[in-house]
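name: query_chain
kind: protein
chains: 1
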Amino acid sequence: MRPIKKLLAANRSEIATRVFRSAHELGIRTVAIYSHEDRFALHRFKADEAYQIGKHGEPIRSYLDIPGIVALCKKHDIDAVHPGYGFLSENPDFAAALEAEGIVFVGPSVAALNALGDKVAARGIAAAAGVPVLPGSSEAVTDLERAMAIAAEMGYPVMLKAAKGGGGRGMR
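structure:
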Protein backbone atom coordinates (compact mmCIF):
# COMPACT_ATOMS: atom_id res chain seq x y z
CA MET A 1 0.00 0.00 0.00
CA ARG A 2 1.31 3.44 -0.88
CA PRO A 3 1.86 5.96 1.92
CA ILE A 4 -0.97 8.34 2.71
CA LYS A 5 -0.09 11.97 1.99
CA LYS A 6 -3.45 13.70 2.34
CA LEU A 7 -6.31 12.45 4.54
CA LEU A 8 -9.89 13.69 4.59
CA ALA A 9 -11.98 13.13 7.72
CA ALA A 10 -15.53 12.49 6.51
CA ASN A 11 -16.92 13.64 9.83
CA ARG A 12 -17.21 16.69 12.04
CA SER A 13 -16.35 18.27 15.38
CA GLU A 14 -14.40 16.28 17.97
CA ILE A 15 -14.25 13.12 15.86
CA ALA A 16 -12.58 14.93 12.96
CA THR A 17 -10.30 16.87 15.31
CA ARG A 18 -8.97 13.64 16.81
CA VAL A 19 -8.35 12.18 13.35
CA PHE A 20 -6.44 15.35 12.40
CA ARG A 21 -4.31 15.24 15.54
CA SER A 22 -3.23 11.67 14.84
CA ALA A 23 -2.60 12.37 11.16
CA HIS A 24 -0.50 15.43 11.96
CA GLU A 25 1.63 13.33 14.33
CA LEU A 26 2.33 11.06 11.35
CA GLY A 27 3.15 13.95 9.03
CA ILE A 28 -0.02 13.55 6.96
CA ARG A 29 -1.82 16.62 5.57
CA THR A 30 -5.46 16.82 6.66
CA VAL A 31 -8.66 17.94 5.01
CA ALA A 32 -11.90 18.89 6.73
CA ILE A 33 -15.34 18.98 5.23
CA TYR A 34 -18.03 21.09 6.82
CA SER A 35 -21.65 21.97 6.24
CA HIS A 36 -22.78 25.58 6.03
CA GLU A 37 -24.07 25.24 9.59
CA ASP A 38 -20.64 24.03 10.76
CA ARG A 39 -18.69 26.84 9.08
CA PHE A 40 -17.44 28.06 12.48
CA ALA A 41 -16.83 24.59 13.95
CA LEU A 42 -13.38 23.93 15.41
CA HIS A 43 -12.60 20.97 13.14
CA ARG A 44 -12.66 23.27 10.11
CA PHE A 45 -9.75 25.26 11.53
CA LYS A 46 -7.73 22.29 12.81
CA ALA A 47 -7.22 20.83 9.32
CA ASP A 48 -4.64 21.93 6.76
CA GLU A 49 -7.43 22.41 4.21
CA ALA A 50 -11.20 22.75 4.62
CA TYR A 51 -14.04 22.67 2.11
CA GLN A 52 -17.74 23.34 2.50
CA ILE A 53 -20.02 20.59 1.26
CA GLY A 54 -23.75 20.24 0.83
CA LYS A 55 -26.48 22.82 0.85
CA HIS A 56 -27.51 25.42 3.39
CA GLY A 57 -30.19 23.95 5.65
CA GLU A 58 -29.09 20.33 5.17
CA PRO A 59 -26.26 19.84 7.69
CA ILE A 60 -26.61 16.09 8.17
CA ARG A 61 -27.23 15.34 4.49
CA SER A 62 -24.00 17.21 3.69
CA TYR A 63 -21.93 14.61 5.56
CA LEU A 64 -23.79 11.77 3.81
CA ASP A 65 -23.19 12.99 0.23
CA ILE A 66 -21.13 10.13 -1.18
CA PRO A 67 -20.78 11.51 -4.75
CA GLY A 68 -19.94 14.97 -3.42
CA ILE A 69 -17.28 13.70 -1.02
CA VAL A 70 -15.71 11.44 -3.66
CA ALA A 71 -15.66 14.31 -6.20
CA LEU A 72 -14.03 16.58 -3.61
CA CYS A 73 -11.36 13.94 -2.96
CA LYS A 74 -10.58 13.69 -6.67
CA LYS A 75 -10.51 17.46 -7.16
CA HIS A 76 -8.09 18.04 -4.26
CA ASP A 77 -5.83 14.97 -4.68
CA ILE A 78 -6.92 13.35 -1.44
CA ASP A 79 -5.61 9.80 -1.30
CA ALA A 80 -7.36 8.53 1.84
CA VAL A 81 -10.58 9.07 3.79
CA HIS A 82 -11.13 8.33 7.47
CA PRO A 83 -14.88 8.12 8.14
CA GLY A 84 -14.75 8.63 11.91
CA TYR A 85 -17.84 6.97 13.33
CA GLY A 86 -21.50 7.34 12.48
CA PHE A 87 -22.40 9.03 9.20
CA LEU A 88 -20.71 6.92 6.47
CA SER A 89 -18.39 4.83 8.67
CA GLU A 90 -20.28 1.58 8.13
CA ASN A 91 -21.52 2.27 4.60
CA PRO A 92 -20.15 -0.27 2.09
CA ASP A 93 -21.29 1.91 -0.83
CA PHE A 94 -19.07 4.75 0.41
CA ALA A 95 -16.06 2.46 0.83
CA ALA A 96 -16.66 0.97 -2.64
CA ALA A 97 -17.03 4.41 -4.27
CA LEU A 98 -13.71 5.50 -2.79
CA GLU A 99 -12.03 2.24 -3.74
CA ALA A 100 -13.30 2.58 -7.34
CA GLU A 101 -11.44 5.91 -7.57
CA GLY A 102 -8.24 4.57 -6.03
CA ILE A 103 -8.84 6.37 -2.74
CA VAL A 104 -8.07 4.46 0.47
CA PHE A 105 -10.98 3.96 2.88
CA VAL A 106 -9.40 3.96 6.34
CA GLY A 107 -11.62 1.28 7.80
CA PRO A 108 -12.93 -2.21 7.17
CA SER A 109 -12.97 -3.66 3.67
CA VAL A 110 -16.11 -3.47 1.56
CA ALA A 111 -16.56 -7.23 2.07
CA ALA A 112 -16.35 -6.85 5.86
CA LEU A 113 -18.78 -3.93 5.84
CA ASN A 114 -21.24 -5.98 3.78
CA ALA A 115 -20.85 -9.07 5.96
CA LEU A 116 -21.10 -7.26 9.26
CA GLY A 117 -23.58 -4.53 8.33
CA ASP A 118 -26.44 -6.91 9.09
CA LYS A 119 -26.33 -7.60 12.83
CA VAL A 120 -28.11 -10.95 12.46
CA ALA A 121 -25.56 -12.12 9.88
CA ALA A 122 -22.70 -10.68 11.98
CA ARG A 123 -23.93 -12.60 15.01
CA GLY A 124 -23.94 -15.81 12.96
CA ILE A 125 -20.41 -15.14 11.67
CA ALA A 126 -19.17 -14.50 15.21
CA ALA A 127 -20.81 -17.65 16.57
CA ALA A 128 -19.41 -19.74 13.70
CA ALA A 129 -15.93 -18.39 14.50
CA GLY A 130 -16.29 -19.49 18.12
CA VAL A 131 -16.84 -16.02 19.55
CA PRO A 132 -19.19 -16.18 22.55
CA VAL A 133 -22.50 -14.46 21.81
CA LEU A 134 -25.31 -13.55 24.15
CA PRO A 135 -28.58 -15.47 23.94
CA GLY A 136 -30.84 -14.11 21.24
CA SER A 137 -32.59 -14.86 18.00
CA SER A 138 -30.64 -16.37 15.13
CA GLU A 139 -32.87 -14.68 12.56
CA ALA A 140 -34.50 -11.30 12.14
CA VAL A 141 -37.64 -10.88 14.22
CA THR A 142 -40.30 -9.13 12.17
CA ASP A 143 -43.41 -9.24 14.31
CA LEU A 144 -44.38 -8.49 17.90
CA GLU A 145 -45.80 -11.94 18.61
CA ARG A 146 -42.51 -13.66 17.70
CA ALA A 147 -40.50 -11.05 19.65
CA MET A 148 -42.59 -11.65 22.77
CA ALA A 149 -42.22 -15.43 22.45
CA ILE A 150 -38.42 -15.14 22.18
CA ALA A 151 -38.32 -12.72 25.14
CA ALA A 152 -40.42 -15.07 27.27
CA GLU A 153 -38.14 -17.98 26.36
CA MET A 154 -34.94 -16.04 27.14
CA GLY A 155 -36.22 -14.17 30.16
CA TYR A 156 -36.25 -10.47 30.87
CA PRO A 157 -34.74 -7.93 30.56
CA VAL A 158 -34.22 -8.03 26.78
CA MET A 159 -32.71 -5.58 24.36
CA LEU A 160 -33.92 -4.90 20.82
CA LYS A 161 -31.57 -3.78 18.07
CA ALA A 162 -32.20 -3.05 14.40
CA ALA A 163 -30.60 -5.71 12.20
CA LYS A 164 -29.28 -2.94 9.97
CA GLY A 165 -29.97 0.64 9.12
CA GLY A 166 -30.63 1.69 12.68
CA GLY A 167 -29.62 5.23 11.80
CA GLY A 168 -27.40 5.57 14.84
CA ARG A 169 -30.24 5.20 17.30
CA GLY A 170 -28.63 2.21 18.95
CA MET A 171 -30.35 -0.24 21.24
CA ARG A 172 -33.86 0.01 22.61
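note: The two ends are 41 Å apart (CA to CA).
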